[in-house]
Write a structure and sequence with these properties.
12 strands; single chain; Alpha-Beta Plaits; two-stranded antiparallel sheet
Length: about 230
Amino acid sequence: MGITVSDTSTLVLIKFKVQGNLRFLSHTETVKVFQRACVRAGIKTTYSQGFNPRPRLSLPLPRSVGVESDDDLLCLCVQLCRPSTSQSGTLVSSFDTEELKNTLAGQLPDGCQLLSVTVAKTKASIQPSAATYCFVVRQEYFNEKLKTDVENLLSNESLNIKRRVDAKGTVRQIDVRPFLNSIQLDDKNIIVECKISPAGSIRVDEILKLLELDVGKLAAPIRRVSVQWEQLQN
């Protein structure tokens, strides 16, 4: 994800959690939550050019509907309110990340908690490289068969699944084994770390299918517990 910044704007990285009923918001609805919160908080975001200008903000890693997240990220391009000129002649700013965090947090609904606000490197590109999910399995389904299935999955050199790839219903066969970094069993939890690359990743519903599980066999909402983010310089 790349957002163009200028001398009078800065790219802000906002980490947050999504819990409870808010997990049922779609990707587009989550973006709108932050757009409205920024307006109510009086945060001056920069806008895109053209006939339909929109606030420059994005969520680099879309969250599946119904999945909670402990480590989500919003990229927000903010106008600098108090610019000044340094001795070298370049424009600098006394941008207050803590003030933005407190102001924005007060406008967000229950279930969305801000964790941190930092300023990104100029012209940085934010990319996820891995994500870890937690599946809490009901006791009656956490059995030897499940443990054996997990071991068999990791021993396979390839795991081909059928994936719908467009709105027309086109289905392709995809090998998702390269996207599975690890699967661990911890008490009644299944911890799955997935690789994310330009070639794609494995989806949450595909993980459930491979494990022969569904939401009815889970004792808690699926949770994305962590994401490895890379801040690349353009």
